[in-house]
Specification:
By secondary structure, this protein is an alpha+beta fold. 14% of the residues lie in helices and 31% in strands. The longest helix is centred in the N-terminal third of the chain and has 9 residues, at 30-38. The chain starts with a strand and ends in a 34-residue tail after the last strand.
Amino acid sequence: MSPGQNPASGAPVIADGRVDINPADEPPGMFYFFLNAVIVPRPIAWVSSRSAEGTDNLAPHSFFTVASVEPPIVQFTSIGRKDSLRNIEQTRDFVVSFTPAALIAEVNATATDFPAEVSEFDAVGVTREPALRVAAARVAESPVALECKLHTTVSFGISTVVMGRVVYAAIDPAVLRDGRPAIDLLDPASRLGGNEWGRVDLDGIANVTRIGHHEWPGHYRPRASDAGGPDAA
């Protein structure tokens, strides 16, 4: 590829074929779509919360990960001030339900911008299940629920990171094998770029162990082009 311009944003293309992108130069919202397309696949937090008035909210958030193991803290990001964020700030708790591929239609439907007084549980037809340690309801159809107490929130521009301490977890024994959650039984859904959703390709799963320094290079073999690698003559 010769130097030119990125047809989408006008960003210059450098000589080695890569496109230079300065987030500050992109039109509003453009870099958001870029991040969504390259940070993939993303797990989905199906976040249920209860408003101060008692309305049960349910919404998917795909900027989601583990923040800490001890203490156990999970985090998701709200883009803008949505019902989930407002409810959690008011009531200080929420539930993250797992999103299996079989429920993609329901998860997507709960992303609809219903008015705050409308419960997605009722509008979409998802079953409430009482939580044990928090006020927010679990999703009964989901195989895993993480009950969380609000730990803290951190805001960056229009985004707010919500961190919740996991105070209780519940899992359907049907997705356990040898006492552990099994990926093929969980069959997780994930978010990709644009309107794309993904699921695990079980045939494509690689089981690769880490290599201790004492056994380096172990099973690692550098590509032939890596002339300076540990196996180089």
